[in-house]
Amino acid sequence: MIFGSLLIALFFIFLLIRITTYFIGLGYIAAVVVDVIAIGGFVVFYGHHNWFIHIASGKAIYFWDVVLFVLIFLLYSSIVLIGTNKFPRIAGLFHYVIAWLVTGFIYLFINYAIFNQLGALLINEQMNLIVHLIIISILAVFIFKKRMLIFKQNLT
For residues 105 and 98, what is the distance between their CA atoms, to the nearest angstrom? Predict the structure, then answer.
C-alpha cells in the first residue's frame, strides 16, 4: 500500500520534471508566445470594443480579432528578432523591462491572492512598498538572465 503510493508520487514528480524540461526546451517559443498573449490580448480587447464593432457585425467581429492577433504576433516576433540581433543593448533593456513587468504582475497576484493586500514585511507602509519593489527587482534579474539565455544574447 505504502509502496504503491510512493510509486505513484514518484511517477507524478517524474512527469512534472519532464513537462518542465520540455517547456524550458521550448524557451524562445515560450517567451515570445507569453509576451504575445499578454500584449495581443490587451490589443485585441481594445480593438474588439473600440474598432471592430464599428466595421463589422455579428461573428465577423471575431474574425477581425483573430486577424489583429496574428498581425500582433508577426510584428512582435519580428521586432524582437531584429532588435535582438541589430540592437543588443536596447534589446537587453527591453528584456529587463519585460522581465520586471512579468515578475511584478506575478508577485502582486500572489500577494493579493494570499494576503488580500501587499504582505506586511515592515511596519512603515512606505518602506514596506520599497522592500517589495526591491524583491521584485531582484527576482526580475533572474528572469532577465533566463530571457537573455533564451534569446542567446551576450551583453558586454
Answer: 11
